[in-house]
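Design review, sub-item: ligand-bound model
Attendees: FS, YL, KQ
YL presented the inputs for the iron/sulfur cluster complex:
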Amino acid sequence: MSEPKLMKGNEAIAEAAIQAGCRYFFGYPITPQNELPEYMARRLPEVGGVYLQAESEVSAINMVYGAAGAGGRVMTSSSSPGISLMQEGISYLAGAELPCVLVNIVRGGPGLGGIHAAQSDYFQATKGGGHGDYRLLVLAPGSVQETVDLLQEAFDLADKYRNPVMLLGDAVLGQMMEAVRLPRDLDEPLPPPPPPESKVWATTGAVNRSRNVINSLYIEPERLEKHNWHIQEKYRRMEAEEVRYEAVQVDDAGTVVVAYGTTARIARTAVDEARRQGLKAGLFRPISLYPFPYQALREAAGRARRVLVVEMSCGQMLDDVRLAVGERCPVEFYGRPGGNIPTPQEVLDRIAGKGGEAK
Amino acid sequence: MTTVVAQRPKSLSDVVMNYCPGCTHGIIHRLVAEAIDALDARERTIGVASVGCSVFAYNYFECDMQQASHGRAPAVATGIKRVLPDRLVFTYQGDGDLASIGAAEIVHAAARGENITVIFVNNANYGMTGGQMAPTTLLGQKTTTTPLGRDPKTDGFPIRMAEMLATLQGPAYIARVSVHSPQAVKQAGDAIKKAFRLQAEGKGFTLIEVLSTCPTNWGLAPNQALKWLVENLIPFYPLGEFKKEEGGA
Ligand SMILES: Cc1ncc(C[n+]2csc(CCOP(=O)(O)OP(=O)(O)O)c2C)c(N)n1
Ligand code: SF4
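KQ shared the predicted structure:
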């Protein structure tokens, strides 16, 4: 572990990715994530890696495809409109079963929207996003430190499942400076990443083996169906093995607040204040958004009087919370769409049953 | 004693290809495979198949292959080459794929001088989807989406990709060839070999545009299709070398 260092979220993500063995980055500028590729452009050449500014996000994601297929540990980052543009490529990555890490520092939409924090890409991230029946493994860190901690895992999970992993952040997380501990100090030498040939399926050249093919085309219906069941089986395994969440004071909570990422920090402040005021509130924070922690939330909701979902969107994770809670108790919602962040007081008012209709 | 005078290149798979009778995609495949063999490079070559009639090229070349989304083969090849700079990387793309949906990717791969070889098959229409207009469709040429012939007032003008890309500093070698006769096939083979050799020498981006027939969608018998190519495509798409080894990364 390094000494604590004050770092901007975007830069901490870049450094943590490099320390996790990432040596290839392809991207296209977009606010509010520019510090991430800029850091990569400085740092990757120092460690023998490749930074390349693509001509578009479409191109960037297809460079990721080529590099992942060639056995490289590779990532890209962007923000909402850019991630929209990448969707065909992401679908191909999932179809061809290629590991990579995608970072979405979410900003407000729709359209050009704005450059401030939002959580309105939840549906796109967790339900597939592009065409076809596929899922990304989606991790939503709640602090810069947690982002750093999750990155090594993100790359390892991508390799384990041969599937893209998305880190879903937002403009606050990307722009905020916090003290972080990285796995290593910045001047510590990094171990060389495993060679591309260590991925036996990768297209590294057909030396002493039959040729490898990276492909998502199955023109015969029987083979396409078989392939789809095969990737579905991976998603079922993720659902069984990769659920991550944090539950704070939910055991005796009358009101369970459900929030992720930056919003969960705001909700945490509100929950702590509610407790001080004698209100029994708790926080349930999904960390893996896909797979969503349905079972754990169902149990927490089973003991509660009500569930309050707070998001920086008009209600997207809300659908998954409703699926988890069912008829066990009422599910209320407080959200503000991209750009403006719910305040702890606003959340506290909702916990206290004040504040009128959920916005 | 028997002497082998011709045989299947090692880099070409022993499978039945899906191309229509008389389609020249197959000849071009063979030339690419021969160029790889000439460098004894089958085991260190990675090919990128695009979207079009040649999509199954990943089954036809006996080297490692990736299949790219429509138009993005140069980006995919870039990703591969940046991870494996000492391997040979090539794309095989149609004219709809390269000159229309993938126009940005090819221009920027060329501008970067990306050290890859692009085989660009120009048959003046979208073969796979049933013969629609391509960016390379000639003025007056009838396709399923220009039923009265391509009209520049509504459909714009065809693009000479080889000439356009040759204006960039990045490329090391750009040539246009054809496969309508044994002599043309020989010249095409030489150009493709040269492109692969330059890549092996690290000279930078190389692209060979190959004029090719689509008898099925042109509505012509194979021999008539070859004649149509000579009489119509070559006058508008002249054969020759447009860029020779200056730039390159
Ligand atoms: C994003 C996307 N758009 C459209 C298509 C449909 N499509 C498949 S092949 C093709 C045209 C290919 O034509 P060309 O590149 O000229 O190759 P040819 O078939 O003539 O060899 C199109 C439009 C697709 N697969 N993906
Ligand atoms: S449709 Fe045209 S390009 Fe495609 S295989 Fe048939 S003849 Fe060749």
